[in-house]
Amino acid sequence: MTIIYAIIIFCLLIFVHEFGHFIVAKACGVKVNEFAIGMGPAIFKKQKGETLYAVRVFPIGGYCAMEGEDEDSEEPRALNNQPVWQRACILAAGAIMNFITCVVLLIIIAFWAGTATTTIDQVTAGSPAEQAGIKSGDTILYVDDQQIDEWNDLIESIGYSKAEQAEVTYERDGKQDAVMVDLEYNEEAGRNLIGISPVMKHSVGGAISGGIKNTGTMTVMMYTVLKQLFTGEVAVSELSGPVGIVYATNEAAKSGVMYVIYLAALLSLNLAIINLLPFPALDGGRLLFLVIRLFTGKRVSDETEGKIHFIGICLLFALMIYVTFNDVIKFILPIF
User: Fold this and answer.
1) Are 183 and 190 in contact (CB under 8 A)?
2) Among residues 89, 161, 235, 248, which is most buried (max CB within 10 A)?
């Protein structure tokens, strides 16, 4: 199942990315020579119109090969002969599709998990909350005069308080009451716990809001890690490739399908962000060349740009070999 999950994730994210390039290229009238999922020899191919559609044997990549993408072409519909804004849209479309995929997957997770409300679902027996008289069905309104609008407000006000007690105001059967609750620090959770869990509300609006919010949080987290890579706070040896992803898929699969979906969302956003980095061969590198050529004109030819992107591909393959070697040491050798 791990292998199946990993292949599905790889193929889904690659397909979504390349399909983004494909549909925008077609919409702009650019000639697409081949749309392929996978690398290596073709196990299925079909020519339809001017485009060859192929599924290749190794599910570790894919491409949307457009006329005039890495070479000078006299074809009027070639990518190199299109307006700058159209080329920019085509190049950015893959990352945008991966970003949208991440949002959609996180919305699915948010709907499945539900949104935590401020109404109490369960009170742990013997907990500080039970001892203070809080019951299931109570709605928390205030903690120490701080208004509680959502569950995270409750976590912040109680979980990270330095005090030994907190005054909790709640509503029960239309009436308000206030009690003093002892705060107990939990080493495993890393914050104070009083022994309550929330009623989870499943709504489309809440799921959409939660999915978008979680995507933003995840994006900030990824850019922080990238910054730490450049500053040396995180070592390059900590990066993972396909082997590491299969290992992570295996760990996620042990916890259930939703954890696999969460991993897919994480990888999709990762693919979007990495592809927009201004490095040769990546979409971000190609977008950078569009900007450069706006100012330099024909002094940077399509052939020159193609050679630079080829060097970028070689460097990326070298990086992939390096991280795969590290993954084998970290995840495979310990098994033996």
Assistant:
1) no
2) 248
DSSP code, position 336: -
Whole-angstrom Cα distance, residue 146 to residue 259? 34
Listed residue (17, 237, 192, 207) closest to 103, CA to CA: 207
pTM of the entire predicted model: 0.81
Residue 317 has pLDDT above 90, yes or no: no
Token pair, residue 311, equals 């060097």
- Give the model's confidence band at 336: pLDDT under 50 very low, under 70 low, under 90 confident, else very high: low
Beta-carbon contacts of residue 190 (< 8 Å; ≥ 6 apart): none
pLDDT tens readout for residues 45-79: 999 999 999 999 887 778 999 998 877 788 999 99
Is residue 75 annotated as part of the catalytic site, yes or no? no
Note every long-range contact of 174-181, with CB atoms under 8 Å and residues 24 or more positions apart, other chains counting.
Answer: 176/141, 178/142, 179/132, 179/133, 179/134, 180/132, 181/128, 181/129, 181/132, 181/134
Active-site residue identified among 18, 67, 69, 305: 18
Q: Higher-confidence residue: 303 or 197?
A: 197
Of 109, 81, 158, the residue nearest 260 (C-alpha): 109
Q: Which domains, from first to last, does the chain contain?
A: 2-112+210-335 (no CATH), 115-201 (2.30.42.10)
How does pLDDT run across 241-252, given as a tens digit for each residue? Answer: 877 888 888 888
Structure tokens at 117: 């409300």
Position 124 pLDDT exceeds 90 = yes
